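hey can u check if this looks right to u? its 77 residues, i copy pasted from the old doc so theres a chance i mangled smth
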Amino acid sequence: MVMVNIYEAKTDFSKLVARAEAGERITIARNGRPVAELGPAGGITIKREPGVLAGKVWMADDFDDFTEQDERDWYGE
């Protein structure tokens, strides 16, 4: 988390807006106490990289199987 004081925010506002456009959230503080946030409009956008976890995640072959015992465990008898 990046925290800047109000004076710095006023002085470097255009730079802070550019950082917010890039997806960063900036907390603006008064006397060291957070009072506002500056961030990207419409929520945080994160650049996704498909396949980044390839080979790092393992899932059992029976992961999707739902047995009668599972049904009893979930819903009772």
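The chain has three helices and three strands.
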